[in-house]
Specification:
- The chain is built from three helices and twelve strands.
- Strands 1-2-5-4-3-6 form a six-stranded antiparallel beta barrel. It has a six-stranded antiparallel β-barrel with strand order 7-8-11-10-9-12.
- It starts with 7 loop residues before the first strand and ends with a helix.
- Pfam families: Lum_binding (PF00677).
- Pathway: Cofactor biosynthesis; riboflavin biosynthesis; riboflavin from 2-hydroxy-3-oxobutyl phosphate and 5-amino-6-(D-ribitylamino)uracil: step 2/2.
């Protein structure tokens, strides 16, 4: 489990095409200082398993499903990436609960400079809009952000200078893809309400 608070702006060192999968080698001196084989590291919001590590770098394999659901397949050597280690039990939850399981990719539709920072509008894949609410949480490329305005097909977030300086969103432009993970609590509520409605219908049919 992650928090969506990026620890380090890393860099892609190499990308190896494995056919339907890929192997990434990434540089991140901070997140690798205590890493071991089998540990998890979130890369642009995608939870990956460390295969090898050393000299401030680590290698991770990316399966076909992950390549399909995320933007990791578009990474090339030299590309910056947001890195975060899992939250330690008992640690501070400064962002929100993030699984590292990307729900889909969006596209930056607009970028507007404001007096206090930057507003970014992101398009949503079909079906994700129902999980967003104004002032709710969403993860964009592994960054925990507060939704300013939510619509069925897009949302807007406001970025402070610190977020712009320390994450990939500082250089993202309209047309660039971003990984999205909606608040898992919203998905659980939807699932529970669906079961509740189905149970009520079954009870009503049984009494007729």
């Amino acid at each position: 489990m992650f928090t969506g608070i990026v620890e380090e702006l890393g860099e892609v060192v190499a990308v190896e095409d494995l056919g339907k999968a890929a192997r990434l080698r990434l540089r991140g001196p901070l997140v690798t200082k205590d890493v071991r084989h089998g540990d998890s590291i979130a890369v642009n919001g995608v939870c990956l398993t460390v295969v090898e590590s050393g000299d401030g770098e680590f290698t991770a394999d990316v399966i076909a499903e992950t390549l399909h659901r995320s933007s990791l397949g578009a990474l090339a050597p030299g590309a910056p990436v947001n890195l975060e280690r899992p939250m330690a039990l008992g640690g501070r939850l400064d962002g929100h609960l993030v699984q590292g399981h990307v729900d889909g990719t969006g596209t930056i539709a607009a970028r507007t400079e404001t007096e206090g920072g930057t507003d970014i509008t992101v398009t949503l894949p079909d079906g994700l809009g129902r999980y967003l609410v104004d002032k709710g949480s969403i993860t964009v490329d592994g960054i925990s952000l507060t939704v300013v305005e939510a619509a069925d097909d897009h949302f807007t977030v406001s970025l402070i200078p610190t977020t712009l300086a320390l994450t990939t969103l500082g250089t993202k432009q309209p047309g660039d893809p971003v990984n999205l993970e909606v608040d898992v609590l919203a998905k659980y509520v939807e699932r529970l309400m669906g079961h509740r409605g189905a149970t009520r219908e079954a009870q009503e049919e049984a009494t007729q």
